[in-house]
Structures are given as structure tokens and as C-alpha cells.
Write a structure and sequence with these properties.
Domain ASCH: 21-119
Family: Belongs to the N(4)-acetylcytidine amidohydrolase family.
GO cellular component, one term: cytosol
Number of helices: 3
Shape: globular
Order of helices and strands: EHEEEHHE
Strand content: 25-35%
Strand order of the largest sheet: 1-3-4-5-2
Radius of gyration: 15 Å
CATH architecture: Roll
Protein name: N(4)-acetylcytidine amidohydrolase
Structural class: alpha+beta
CATH superfamily: Sulfate adenylyltransferase
Number of strands: 5
Keywords: Hydrolase
CATH class: Alpha Beta
Length: 121
């Protein structure tokens, strides 16, 4: 009997665990240099699983940048975003909050995804 390999299923949502992630192009040098070690996303992008390796692509051009390993995924309220998060994002706090408000104007539930660089191109 022939069986097809299955993609891991996320226990959080019963959805397929993502194997890629996109970032704005201006952020990719920070990821490749390991200066940016978290990303803040909404629930639709919160299904990454700790321990999985993920390919990073630019949002604008879909160009592969590097590989990262997901370390953790944790809920994060917008009002709780502070200097620690800004430092991990490698952005000033006011710029980080402005960017999050621009990307997620309705302030949905947010998640902090911690990661480490595996390999850069």
C-alpha cells in the first residue's frame, strides 16, 4: 500500500503548519544578520510550530532570504508591546507600534513569534 507523506497538522487550529513566512523587504537584512529575532503577527499567521524550520521570503518580490527556526509562539496584546519587543524587532518602539497599526488597523489578537536564524543566502 502506498502512503503519501503528510504535512504536520497544527494542534492549535487543525490547519497545516506553515513552512514559509514573508517579511517586508526593508526588514530582511535585520533577519539575515540575526538582529531581528521576533515578529508580531495576527491570528491568521500564528500557526507556526516551535522547532520547525521555515523559509523566509520578501513580501514584495517573493525572493528567498534565509531560513529560520521557530522558537515560540505566544499571545501578545498591543498594549503590552514595549521596549523589549522593539529591541527584538530591531526597531524603535514608536516605529514598531506604527507599523503594527498600519498592517493591522483593527488591532486583532496578536502573537509574538520568536525565531533564530538557521542559514542566510
Amino acid at each position: 500500500m502506498h502512503t503519501t507523506p503528510k504535512t504536520p497538522i497544527s494542534p492549535i487550529s487543525n490547519s497545516t503548519v506553515p513552512t514559509t513566512i514573508t517579511f517586508f523587504e526593508f526588514l530582511t537584512p535585520l533577519i539575515k544578520s540575526a538582529k531581528k529575532t521576533i515578529t508580531i503577527r495576527d491570528e491568521s499567521e500564528s500557526h507556526y510550530q516551535p522547532g520547525t524550520q521555515v523559509e523566509v521570503f520578501t513580501l514584495e518580490t517573493n525572493q528567498k532570504v534565509c531560513d529560520i527556526r521557530i522558537l515560540s509562539v505566544e499571545p501578545l496584546a498591543f498594549d503590552d508591546i514595549n521596549e523589549y519587543h522593539a529591541e527584538q524587532e530591531s526597531l524603535p518602539l514608536n516605529e514598531l507600534k506604527q507599523l503594527i497599526n498600519k498592517v493591522y488597523p483593527n488591532q486583532p489578537p496578536l502573537f509574538m513569534i520568536r525565531f533564530e536564524l538557521v542559514s542566510a543566502r
